[in-house]
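Exercise 3.2. Students should predict the tertiary structure of the chain below and write it as C-alpha coordinates, then compare their answer with the key that follows.

Predict this chain's 3D structure.
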Amino acid sequence: MKTAAAQIRRAVLGGALSALACSGALAQSPASCPPQAQQPTAEQIQTNTRNARDHGFLWRISKGGRDSYLYGTVHVAKLEWAFPGPLTQKALHDSDAVALEIDMLDPDMQRRLVEGLHAQAGTPLPEAVRQRLNRRVQAECLPDQALAGLSPELQVATLMSIIGRRDGLDPSYGIDVVLAGWGHASKMSVVSLESPELQLKTLQMPSAAETLEFVESALDELESGRAAPTLVRVAQVWADSDLAALLSYESWCECVKTNADRAAMARMLDERNPGLADGIATLHAQGKKVFAAVGSLHMVGPQGLPALMAQRGFKVERVVFQP
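Answer key:
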Protein backbone atom coordinates (compact mmCIF):
# COMPACT_ATOMS: atom_id res chain seq x y z
CA MET A 1 0.00 0.00 0.00
CA LYS A 2 1.29 3.47 -0.83
CA THR A 3 2.22 5.91 1.91
CA ALA A 4 -0.44 8.27 3.20
CA ALA A 5 1.36 11.25 1.67
CA ALA A 6 1.42 9.60 -1.76
CA GLN A 7 -2.26 8.66 -1.49
CA ILE A 8 -3.23 12.19 -0.51
CA ARG A 9 -1.14 13.69 -3.29
CA ARG A 10 -2.76 11.52 -5.95
CA ALA A 11 -6.23 12.06 -4.53
CA VAL A 12 -5.97 15.84 -4.45
CA LEU A 13 -4.22 16.08 -7.81
CA GLY A 14 -6.89 13.85 -9.33
CA GLY A 15 -9.67 16.05 -8.02
CA ALA A 16 -7.96 19.25 -9.04
CA LEU A 17 -7.09 18.01 -12.53
CA SER A 18 -10.64 16.77 -13.04
CA ALA A 19 -11.86 20.20 -11.98
CA LEU A 20 -9.44 21.96 -14.31
CA ALA A 21 -10.75 19.88 -17.21
CA CYS A 22 -14.29 20.94 -16.32
CA SER A 23 -13.20 24.55 -15.94
CA GLY A 24 -12.75 24.71 -19.68
CA ALA A 25 -16.37 25.88 -19.61
CA LEU A 26 -15.32 28.93 -17.59
CA ALA A 27 -14.59 32.22 -19.21
CA GLN A 28 -11.17 33.83 -18.87
CA SER A 29 -11.46 35.64 -15.57
CA PRO A 30 -11.12 39.39 -15.19
CA ALA A 31 -10.32 40.73 -11.74
CA SER A 32 -14.00 40.82 -10.73
CA CYS A 33 -14.46 37.10 -11.40
CA PRO A 34 -14.04 34.38 -8.78
CA PRO A 35 -10.76 32.45 -8.85
CA GLN A 36 -10.62 29.16 -10.70
CA ALA A 37 -9.37 25.99 -9.06
CA GLN A 38 -5.69 25.38 -9.60
CA GLN A 39 -3.57 22.26 -9.46
CA PRO A 40 -1.95 22.31 -5.98
CA THR A 41 1.78 22.84 -5.85
CA ALA A 42 4.19 20.36 -4.27
CA GLU A 43 4.70 22.82 -1.40
CA GLN A 44 0.93 23.11 -0.81
CA ILE A 45 0.60 19.32 -0.78
CA GLN A 46 3.45 18.92 1.70
CA THR A 47 2.18 21.67 4.01
CA ASN A 48 -1.43 20.51 3.99
CA THR A 49 -0.48 16.87 4.44
CA ARG A 50 1.62 17.79 7.46
CA ASN A 51 -1.11 19.97 8.99
CA ALA A 52 -4.13 17.83 8.06
CA ARG A 53 -6.86 17.54 10.68
CA ASP A 54 -10.13 15.68 10.75
CA HIS A 55 -13.27 17.31 9.35
CA GLY A 56 -16.79 16.10 8.75
CA PHE A 57 -18.74 13.36 10.53
CA LEU A 58 -17.65 9.75 11.08
CA TRP A 59 -19.46 6.72 12.49
CA ARG A 60 -18.17 3.18 13.00
CA ILE A 61 -20.81 0.59 12.07
CA SER A 62 -20.23 -3.01 13.15
CA LYS A 63 -21.90 -6.30 12.28
CA GLY A 64 -20.76 -9.90 11.90
CA GLY A 65 -17.42 -9.23 13.57
CA ARG A 66 -16.39 -6.55 11.05
CA ASP A 67 -16.27 -2.77 11.18
CA SER A 68 -17.31 -0.47 8.38
CA TYR A 69 -17.69 3.32 8.45
CA LEU A 70 -20.14 6.06 7.53
CA TYR A 71 -18.57 9.40 6.66
CA GLY A 72 -20.50 12.62 6.00
CA THR A 73 -18.89 14.72 3.28
CA VAL A 74 -19.34 18.16 1.76
CA HIS A 75 -19.49 18.70 -1.99
CA VAL A 76 -17.68 22.07 -2.03
CA ALA A 77 -14.58 22.64 0.05
CA LYS A 78 -11.28 24.46 0.49
CA LEU A 79 -8.05 22.91 -0.73
CA GLU A 80 -6.68 22.42 2.78
CA TRP A 81 -9.78 20.43 3.81
CA ALA A 82 -9.10 17.87 1.08
CA PHE A 83 -6.34 16.23 3.15
CA PRO A 84 -7.79 13.61 5.53
CA GLY A 85 -6.90 13.94 9.20
CA PRO A 86 -5.52 11.13 11.36
CA LEU A 87 -8.79 9.47 12.43
CA THR A 88 -10.22 9.67 8.93
CA GLN A 89 -7.01 8.20 7.53
CA LYS A 90 -7.14 5.38 10.06
CA ALA A 91 -10.71 4.53 9.04
CA LEU A 92 -9.66 4.52 5.39
CA HIS A 93 -6.66 2.27 6.11
CA ASP A 94 -8.92 -0.09 8.08
CA SER A 95 -11.28 -0.42 5.09
CA ASP A 96 -10.92 -2.24 1.80
CA ALA A 97 -13.73 -0.54 -0.15
CA VAL A 98 -14.75 3.09 -0.65
CA ALA A 99 -18.46 3.50 -1.37
CA LEU A 100 -19.61 6.86 -2.76
CA GLU A 101 -22.88 8.26 -4.08
CA ILE A 102 -21.13 8.21 -7.48
CA ASP A 103 -17.47 7.59 -8.26
CA MET A 104 -16.81 10.68 -10.37
CA LEU A 105 -13.43 9.31 -11.45
CA ASP A 106 -15.09 6.30 -13.14
CA PRO A 107 -15.10 6.96 -16.92
CA ASP A 108 -18.39 5.09 -17.36
CA MET A 109 -20.06 7.23 -14.69
CA GLN A 110 -18.68 10.38 -16.31
CA ARG A 111 -20.00 9.32 -19.72
CA ARG A 112 -23.45 8.47 -18.42
CA LEU A 113 -23.63 11.71 -16.47
CA VAL A 114 -22.76 13.80 -19.53
CA GLU A 115 -25.25 11.88 -21.67
CA GLY A 116 -27.94 12.28 -19.04
CA LEU A 117 -27.30 15.99 -18.67
CA HIS A 118 -27.85 16.58 -22.37
CA ALA A 119 -30.77 14.16 -22.68
CA GLN A 120 -33.03 15.99 -20.25
CA ALA A 121 -35.57 18.05 -22.15
CA GLY A 122 -36.13 20.64 -19.45
CA THR A 123 -39.10 22.93 -18.91
CA PRO A 124 -39.26 26.14 -20.96
CA LEU A 125 -39.06 29.18 -18.69
CA PRO A 126 -40.81 32.53 -19.07
CA GLU A 127 -38.56 35.03 -20.81
CA ALA A 128 -38.15 37.17 -17.68
CA VAL A 129 -36.96 34.19 -15.64
CA ARG A 130 -34.64 33.07 -18.43
CA GLN A 131 -33.07 36.52 -18.44
CA ARG A 132 -32.59 36.34 -14.67
CA LEU A 133 -30.77 33.04 -15.12
CA ASN A 134 -28.57 34.52 -17.84
CA ARG A 135 -27.59 37.41 -15.58
CA ARG A 136 -26.50 34.97 -12.85
CA VAL A 137 -24.45 33.02 -15.41
CA GLN A 138 -22.70 36.25 -16.38
CA ALA A 139 -22.17 37.24 -12.74
CA GLU A 140 -20.30 33.96 -12.17
CA CYS A 141 -18.20 34.61 -15.29
CA LEU A 142 -19.48 31.63 -17.24
CA PRO A 143 -19.77 31.87 -21.02
CA ASP A 144 -23.26 32.86 -22.15
CA GLN A 145 -24.19 29.37 -23.38
CA ALA A 146 -22.31 27.39 -20.72
CA LEU A 147 -25.48 26.04 -19.08
CA ALA A 148 -27.83 26.33 -22.04
CA GLY A 149 -28.09 22.58 -22.65
CA LEU A 150 -29.10 21.80 -19.07
CA SER A 151 -32.55 21.69 -17.52
CA PRO A 152 -33.50 24.78 -15.47
CA GLU A 153 -33.15 22.77 -12.25
CA LEU A 154 -29.61 21.76 -13.15
CA GLN A 155 -28.73 25.29 -14.19
CA VAL A 156 -29.61 26.75 -10.81
CA ALA A 157 -28.05 23.77 -9.00
CA THR A 158 -24.80 24.46 -10.86
CA LEU A 159 -24.93 28.14 -9.98
CA MET A 160 -25.59 27.30 -6.34
CA SER A 161 -22.56 24.98 -6.29
CA ILE A 162 -20.07 27.58 -7.54
CA ILE A 163 -21.09 30.71 -5.63
CA GLY A 164 -18.61 29.98 -2.85
CA ARG A 165 -15.53 30.35 -5.07
CA ARG A 166 -14.89 33.90 -3.90
CA ASP A 167 -14.71 32.48 -0.36
CA GLY A 168 -12.28 29.75 -1.37
CA LEU A 169 -14.96 27.04 -1.64
CA ASP A 170 -14.88 25.10 -4.88
CA PRO A 171 -16.59 21.91 -6.10
CA SER A 172 -13.16 20.95 -7.47
CA TYR A 173 -12.03 20.17 -3.92
CA GLY A 174 -15.24 18.36 -3.02
CA ILE A 175 -14.47 15.64 -0.50
CA ASP A 176 -16.23 12.90 -2.48
CA VAL A 177 -13.88 13.39 -5.44
CA VAL A 178 -10.85 13.38 -3.14
CA LEU A 179 -11.97 10.12 -1.51
CA ALA A 180 -12.50 8.57 -4.93
CA GLY A 181 -8.92 9.54 -5.73
CA TRP A 182 -7.74 8.05 -2.43
CA GLY A 183 -9.53 4.78 -3.12
CA HIS A 184 -8.16 4.41 -6.63
CA ALA A 185 -4.62 5.38 -5.53
CA SER A 186 -4.78 2.75 -2.77
CA LYS A 187 -6.02 0.05 -5.17
CA MET A 188 -9.17 -0.27 -3.08
CA SER A 189 -12.53 -1.25 -4.50
CA VAL A 190 -14.37 2.01 -5.32
CA VAL A 191 -18.13 1.53 -5.60
CA SER A 192 -20.94 3.81 -6.75
CA LEU A 193 -24.00 3.39 -4.53
CA GLU A 194 -26.24 5.24 -7.01
CA SER A 195 -26.46 5.78 -10.74
CA PRO A 196 -26.08 9.07 -12.62
CA GLU A 197 -29.57 8.51 -13.99
CA LEU A 198 -31.05 8.37 -10.48
CA GLN A 199 -29.24 11.48 -9.34
CA LEU A 200 -30.36 13.45 -12.38
CA LYS A 201 -33.93 12.26 -11.91
CA THR A 202 -33.80 13.43 -8.28
CA LEU A 203 -33.24 17.00 -9.43
CA GLN A 204 -36.18 17.00 -11.85
CA MET A 205 -39.38 18.60 -10.62
CA PRO A 206 -42.57 16.64 -11.35
CA SER A 207 -44.39 19.54 -13.02
CA ALA A 208 -43.68 22.75 -14.91
CA ALA A 209 -45.22 24.80 -12.10
CA GLU A 210 -42.90 23.23 -9.52
CA THR A 211 -39.90 23.75 -11.78
CA LEU A 212 -40.73 27.45 -12.05
CA GLU A 213 -41.25 27.74 -8.28
CA PHE A 214 -37.95 25.96 -7.61
CA VAL A 215 -35.98 28.09 -10.07
CA GLU A 216 -37.47 31.39 -8.91
CA SER A 217 -36.82 30.52 -5.27
CA ALA A 218 -33.17 29.72 -6.05
CA LEU A 219 -32.77 32.90 -8.08
CA ASP A 220 -34.21 34.93 -5.20
CA GLU A 221 -31.50 33.50 -2.92
CA LEU A 222 -28.74 34.15 -5.46
CA GLU A 223 -29.83 37.68 -6.32
CA SER A 224 -30.36 38.74 -2.71
CA GLY A 225 -26.87 37.63 -1.72
CA ARG A 226 -28.22 35.17 0.85
CA ALA A 227 -27.09 32.02 -0.94
CA ALA A 228 -23.33 32.51 -0.62
CA PRO A 229 -23.28 33.06 3.18
CA THR A 230 -25.49 29.99 3.63
CA LEU A 231 -23.10 27.89 1.56
CA VAL A 232 -20.16 29.21 3.58
CA ARG A 233 -21.93 28.30 6.82
CA VAL A 234 -22.76 24.79 5.58
CA ALA A 235 -19.12 24.26 4.66
CA GLN A 236 -17.88 25.59 8.00
CA VAL A 237 -20.30 23.34 9.92
CA TRP A 238 -18.70 20.44 8.09
CA ALA A 239 -15.16 21.70 8.67
CA ASP A 240 -15.87 22.10 12.40
CA SER A 241 -17.64 18.71 12.65
CA ASP A 242 -20.50 20.59 14.32
CA LEU A 243 -23.14 17.87 14.56
CA ALA A 244 -25.60 20.01 16.55
CA ALA A 245 -25.63 22.65 13.79
CA LEU A 246 -25.98 19.95 11.13
CA LEU A 247 -28.99 18.44 12.92
CA SER A 248 -30.69 21.86 13.03
CA TYR A 249 -29.88 22.65 9.38
CA GLU A 250 -33.44 23.38 8.27
CA SER A 251 -33.87 25.96 11.04
CA TRP A 252 -31.07 28.20 9.74
CA CYS A 253 -30.45 27.37 6.07
CA GLU A 254 -33.46 29.38 4.79
CA CYS A 255 -33.67 26.77 2.05
CA VAL A 256 -37.00 25.09 2.81
CA LYS A 257 -39.47 27.90 2.23
CA THR A 258 -41.81 26.60 -0.47
CA ASN A 259 -43.65 23.41 -1.31
CA ALA A 260 -41.18 22.84 -4.14
CA ASP A 261 -38.28 23.27 -1.70
CA ARG A 262 -39.77 20.72 0.69
CA ALA A 263 -40.50 18.23 -2.08
CA ALA A 264 -36.98 18.61 -3.46
CA MET A 265 -35.46 18.08 0.00
CA ALA A 266 -37.47 14.88 0.48
CA ARG A 267 -36.40 13.56 -2.94
CA MET A 268 -32.75 14.44 -2.42
CA LEU A 269 -32.47 12.93 1.06
CA ASP A 270 -35.21 10.79 2.62
CA GLU A 271 -36.22 8.99 -0.59
CA ARG A 272 -32.61 8.10 -1.47
CA ASN A 273 -31.37 7.07 1.97
CA PRO A 274 -32.94 3.56 2.09
CA GLY A 275 -31.22 2.67 -1.19
CA LEU A 276 -27.90 4.00 0.08
CA ALA A 277 -28.29 2.03 3.31
CA ASP A 278 -29.15 -1.16 1.42
CA GLY A 279 -26.10 -0.74 -0.79
CA ILE A 280 -23.78 -0.29 2.19
CA ALA A 281 -25.32 -3.26 4.03
CA THR A 282 -24.94 -5.46 0.92
CA LEU A 283 -21.25 -4.59 0.53
CA HIS A 284 -20.63 -5.30 4.23
CA ALA A 285 -22.48 -8.63 3.99
CA GLN A 286 -20.19 -9.60 1.10
CA GLY A 287 -17.27 -9.46 3.52
CA LYS A 288 -16.03 -5.98 2.68
CA LYS A 289 -14.96 -3.41 5.24
CA VAL A 290 -16.63 -0.36 3.75
CA PHE A 291 -15.80 3.32 4.05
CA ALA A 292 -19.12 4.77 2.89
CA ALA A 293 -18.88 8.50 2.18
CA VAL A 294 -21.96 10.52 1.20
CA GLY A 295 -23.21 14.06 1.72
CA SER A 296 -23.50 14.96 5.41
CA LEU A 297 -27.22 15.75 5.24
CA HIS A 298 -27.83 12.06 4.51
CA MET A 299 -26.79 11.43 8.14
CA VAL A 300 -29.55 13.51 9.76
CA GLY A 301 -32.73 12.40 11.52
CA PRO A 302 -34.75 9.18 11.78
CA GLN A 303 -34.27 8.59 8.03
CA GLY A 304 -30.55 9.36 8.20
CA LEU A 305 -28.01 6.65 7.47
CA PRO A 306 -26.86 6.07 11.07
CA ALA A 307 -30.48 5.40 12.07
CA LEU A 308 -31.14 3.23 9.02
CA MET A 309 -28.00 1.16 9.57
CA ALA A 310 -29.03 0.57 13.19
CA GLN A 311 -32.40 -0.67 11.88
CA ARG A 312 -30.47 -3.12 9.70
CA GLY A 313 -28.79 -4.66 12.73
CA PHE A 314 -25.55 -2.67 12.84
CA LYS A 315 -24.01 -1.34 16.02
CA VAL A 316 -23.51 2.38 15.31
CA GLU A 317 -20.97 4.50 17.19
CA ARG A 318 -19.95 8.04 16.38
CA VAL A 319 -16.19 8.68 16.13
CA VAL A 320 -15.68 12.11 17.71
CA PHE A 321 -12.91 14.27 16.26
CA GLN A 322 -10.72 16.36 18.52
CA PRO A 323 -10.76 20.12 17.84
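Discussion points: The two ends are 29 Å apart (CA to CA). Residues 4-20+39-319 form one domain.
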